[in-house]
Amino acid sequence: MPRRALDNPIVLAVLGLLVEQPMHPYHMLSELRKRSDSHAAAMTRGTLYNTVAAMTGAGWVAAEGQERAGNRPERTVYGLTPAGRTELVRRLDSHIRNPEREFSAFLGAVSYLGALGPDGAIAALAERGERLRRRTEDDEKRLADALAGGVPRLYVIEAEYALGQARAELAWIGSVADDIRTGALPWPATTAPADTATAPGTTAPAERTEKKETKA
Q: CA-CA distances (angstroms) from residue 100 to 49, 95, 148?
């Protein structure tokens, strides 16, 4: 199994799950998808099984038996080994201590915000802000319900962090949109070639090039 399988971000998530109880991979997949939107969007059954195989080879998890549900085939249940617990603590400590630059699709898109033109940028930011606001309100309610139901705060601390990020993004989106409206964030004056078609509210591709050259 390639070493890079052990560099997959889901390794940490699987190690964390197995601290709670031994599981078979199908159960792991279901839990990870339920607990994380990013895992739900990106994780496949094949990726998880390959990762578990690599973790088994590394000695971090070990088969503990078979489990059968109804007429379904038997599934191998895996548990955390002492070496796996040590690796979990090492990774947790490293990730918490060291801030890493994480690239997101939104960050990549914002770098080309100028291509939308002032009106297009304001409209796009406003819609994102509204969708993020609604999602944040839902997440706040779910967190409040969990805490009111007796779930220890430490068990949902990642939800607090995600809400903090969402609130910061909402504030930034509103600030940038306001700066565009007031002219505090000026748009470079560019002229599109006569044969270049641009969508309403967008700027010409030349502006994209100019922006990148300016950054360089």
A: 27, 8, 33
| pLDDT beyond 60 at 40 | no
In terms of DSSP H, where are the helices of the chain?
10-20, 25-35, 37-42, 45-58, 82-97, 105-110, 117-148, 157-182, 205-215
Sequential DSSP letters for 157-181: HHHHHHHHHHHHHHHHHHHHHHHHH
Task: For residues 137-147, give the mean pLDDT.
Answer: 94
Token digits of residue 176: 């940038």
Which tens digits make up the pLDDT trace of 82-114?
Answer: 999 999 999 999 999 999 888 888 999 999 999
Q: Is the dihedral of CA 150, 155, 157, 162 positive or negative?
A: negative
pLDDT at 202: 45
Nearest residue to 175 (alpha-carbon basis) of 125, 132, 131, 135: 125
Alpha-carbon gap, residue 52 to 58, rounded angstroms? 10
Long-range contacts of 84-87 (CB under 8 A, 24+ apart): 84/15, 84/18, 84/55, 84/59, 84/60, 85/15, 85/19, 87/15, 87/58, 87/60
Confidence band, pLDDT 50/70/90 cuts, at residue 38: low
Alpha carbons 55 and 206: distance in angstroms, whole number: 49
Average pLDDT estimate for 1-24: 84
Question: What gap in Å lies between CA 213 and CA 216, rounded to an integer?
Answer: 5
